[in-house]
Structures are given as structure tokens and as C-alpha cells.
Specification:
Oligomer: single chain
Distance between the termini: 45 Å
Radius of gyration: 18 Å
Largest sheet: 8 strands, antiparallel
Number of helices: 7
Number of domains: 2
Shape: globular
Number of strands: 16
Order of helices and strands: HHHEEEEHHEEEHHEEEEEEEEE
Structural class: alpha+beta
Strand content: 25-35%
Mean pLDDT: 93
């Protein structure tokens, strides 16, 4: 199957963003992007310090943010906008109000057991805009059981598409990370690609190559592999979306639709 045009565009943009131009040109590109997108660089190096636009996208904090002292606090793993949240009912969640989709299709063949395990639980959608910090961290201490890379398209995940494109998350390329919390309850994290996202990187699985020539799902399994709350586990090369799905009774979320959150913000309780 040939690459979809959205994937071709995203690959081309990724190559441009990864290219190191002569310093005066690179400084112009970086500073222009910061001004155009309205990036808040107060926690980061100066724009001119990044040798490529991609390094600017995937920038790390100069001083790490402190985690909440409450060990039972559910934290935001990202800087993002919550575009929807609610209860998983009859195997369905929402990409945005009024636009439901089936999570069995989202999760894919390798994670069908997780579909029933999160029934009646909570979903939260996090949209990372191009101006946001693009790294992602664990919202709680989790044991990673398996990961599946599912190739797909690279449609934008902005509000117009969320409102009008049926099964947007299902059509787009994604990475499914199935986990268990400390009480053995299922927690699923889904990284969704978008237009101009050159790569989705997962630090603990270097074999994952998104937006590549891979056209079939690739599955990985792990034994007793824990990732700590707040631990950095990857990045988007541009903004995109992370979806979380929690087993019923495992968390008590305190979030609102259209709420802007930052990494380390408290979003509720792990029960």
C-alpha cells in the first residue's frame, strides 16, 4: 500500500525540520517559529541554541519541574489542552463531543483484552499544539506490558477535523502502550500522529519507526518493566494527541473539557 499524501507531507516536513542550516538562517527559522506560534520559552534555552527546528520542537526543560509530593496524585504527563474526557460506555469514547468511536478499532488486534478491562472507566484526550512542550511523561507509576505500532495516515488533529472527520484517531498512525498500575489495573496510553509530525519517539523501544515504510502493525511485549511517575518516555516531533484509558475505579479524574494543563499538574487521584 502506498503512503497516504498526509504521510508524504509529514515526511517532507520532518526532513526540513531535521536539517541544520547555516547559523544565521537557522536562527531566523527558529526565532520566526517561536514568534509565529507564540512559544513560551521561559523554561527553555534561547531559540538560537537549537541546531535544528526539530531540536526546538523536542526541547527539554532547563530545570526539571518538581512532581507533587502526594504519591497518589494523578498528574498530567504533558503540556496540552484537554479536548474531551468522560466515561467509556459500550466500548466507545469520544474524539470530541458528539463524535464517538470504537476503542476496539483504536486499540487494534493485540489489545482486545484491554477493551473490556477499561469498560466503564475513564478516557482523557490531550491535544499538544505546535507551540506546546512536545515531550511526554508517565502520569503515574506503570508497568508496561506491551506496545503496538499501528501505521496509518497523518490527518491534522485540530478542532475542525475532530468535529467532522469520523474515526480520525483510528485512521491516523498510532502507538498503543498497554500498562498496569501498582494494583494491577489496566491503563492504556495511545500516541496519535498528525500532519507534519515527522516522528513519534518512544525511548524504551528504539525499534519503533513511525512514518516509515512499515505498513503492518508491529507488536512488542515486556516483562516486569516499570516506568516511574513523571518519567520521560518520548516525544512528538511537532504537536499531536495522547489518549489515556483507565480501568473503572482506578482513577478519580478532576478535569474539564478545554482545560489547559501542564506536565506535573494534578488532574485527580489514583485510587
Amino acid at each position: 500500500m502506498a503512503k497516504h499524501f498526509t504521510s508524504i507531507i509529514s515526511s517532507a516536513f520532518g526532513k526540513f525540520a531535521s536539517k541544520a542550516f547555516p547559523s544565521p538562517i537557522q536562527h531566523f527559522i527558529n526565532n520566526g517559529y517561536v514568534k509565529l506560534m507564540g512559544l513560551d520559552m521561559s523554561e527553555f534555552k534561547e531559540p538560537s541554541a537549537y541546531p535544528t527546528l526539530n531540536k526546538l520542537f523536542t526541547r527539554a526543560f532547563e530545570t526539571p519541574r518538581a512532581l507533587p509530593e502526594d504519591k497518589d496524585a494523578l498528574i498530567s504527563g504533558v503540556d496540552a489542552l484537554i479536548t474531551d474526557a468522560g466515561m467509556i460506555k459500550e466500548g466507545k469514547a469520544y474524539q470530541i463531543k458528539g463524535m464517538s468511536y470504537s476503542i476496539d478499532k483504536l486499540f487494534g488486534t493485540y489489545h482486545q483484552d484491554a477493551v473490556s478491562k477499561v469498560e466503564g472507566g475513564e478516557f482523557i484526550n490531550f491535544y499538544l499544539s505546535p507551540k506546546d512542550y512536545h515531550r511526554y511523561h508517565m502520569p503515574m507509576r506503570l508497568k508496561v506490558k506491551s506496545l503496538t505500532h499501528i501505521p496509518g495516515k497523518h490527518y491534522p488533529v485540530n478542532f475542525p477535523l475532530l468535529r467532522h472527520k469520523v474515526d480520525l484517531f483510528i485512521e491516523n498512525e498510532r502507538v498503543i502502550i498497554e500498562c498496569e498500575d501498582e494494583k494491577g489495573r489496566t491503563q492504556v496510553l495511545v500516541l496519535v500522529a498528525a500532519l507534519n509530525v515527522g516522528q513519534m519517539v518512544v525511548t524504551f523501544e528504539e525499534k519503533v519507526r513511525t512514518n516509515s515504510e512499515i505498513r503492518e502493525p508491529v507488536h512488542y511485549e515486556y516483562e516486569d518493566f516499570w516506568v516511574e511517575r513523571g518519567e520521560f518516555y518520548g516525544w512528538f516531533e511537532m504537536g499531536s494527541t495522547i489518549l489515556t484509558f483507565s480501568e473503572k475505579g482506578s482513577i478519580f479524574p478532576e478535569v474539564a473539557i478545554n482545560q489547559k494543563v501542564k506536565f506535573t499538574d494534578i488532574l485527580g487521584k489514583v485510587l
